[in-house]
Amino acid sequence: MIDAAVVDCGGGNLASVIRALEACSARVRLVAHPDELGRPSHIVLPGQGAFADGMRTLRESGLVEALGEQVAGSGTPLLGICLGLQILGLRGNEGGPTAGLGRIEGEVVKLEPDARERRLPHVGWNQVELSEPGRDHPLFRDIPDGTDFYFLHSYHLRCRNPGEVLAHTPYCGRWVSAAARGNIQGVQFHPEKSQAMGLKLLRNFLSL
């Protein structure tokens, strides 16, 4: 059985992520301290809230170093969700300038409304448009280009390397909604709230 560790970085969507992974036939453990991490087959880093708060939780718990050992040392597949994608970047600005985990080259910046009807936070269903790297990435296997997923956020990861960008989404401009580097991938949307296609994406991740 797949042994998935869900890392608690202070977000409020842990229960729904756990239920979705269990629906994909994974055995799931909630991890708040390094000694609880063990040797999972997969790691999920979910979260909602400010970048600075999420990184503070990970640093104070000692999970930054433990995750580094698992992901960089052992090559364990990791999926960041929403805030989890953002803190994979080099730096964030929500809650004050804060260093991230530095696993994907990019900075987290606020969405900029481009019309009067564009409101923040960005809440609801929106398209995920696959880039060339995304079309061939196993995370999006059998998921059609332009599929709608559920979003809830006001910040986004601005990637430096186009080769790490799997998908974009149009709202307040056009920004990165999925990215990957090696065994690390992240999505700005919430697959656990995105019904059938969200579960499909989670199954794709668990098959890595």
Verbal overview:
- Strand 12 and strand 13 form a beta hairpin.
- The chain has one domain (3-206): 3-Layer(aba) Sandwich (Rossmann fold), CATH 3.40.50.880.
- The protein has 208 residues and is α/β, with parallel strands linked by helices.
- A nine-stranded mixed beta sheet has the order 2-1-3-4-13-12-11-8-9. The chain has a four-stranded mixed beta sheet with strand order 6-5-7-10, with helices on one face.
- The protein is 25% helix and 32% strand.
Number of helices: 6
Query: Within the CATH hierarchy, at the fold level, what is the topology?
Result: Rossmann fold
Which blocks of ≥5 consecutive residues have pLDDT under 50? Answer: none
Counted beta strands: 13
Provide the number of structural domains: 1
Main β sheet profile: 9 strands, mixed
For the biggest β-sheet, the strand order reads 2-1-3-4-13-12-11-8-9
Quickly give the structural class: alpha/beta
SSE string: EHEEHHEHEEEEHEEEEEH
Q: Using the coordinates above, name the CATH class.
A: Alpha Beta
Compute the gyration radius: what is it?
16 Å
Distance between the termini: 13 Å
- Fraction of helical residues: 25-40%
Shape: globular
Q: In terms of topology, how is this protein built?
A:
Blueprint: E1 3-7, H1 14-23, E2 27-31, E3 42-45, H2 51-61, H3 63-73, E4 78-81, H4 83-86, E5 91-92, E6 98-99, E7 106-110, E8 122-130, H5 132-135, E9 147-153, E10 155-159, E11 165-170, E12 174-181, E13 184-187, H6 195-206
Tag the structure with descriptive keywords.
alpha/beta, 4-stranded mixed beta sheet, 25% helix, 9-stranded mixed beta sheet, single chain, 208 residues, Rossmann fold
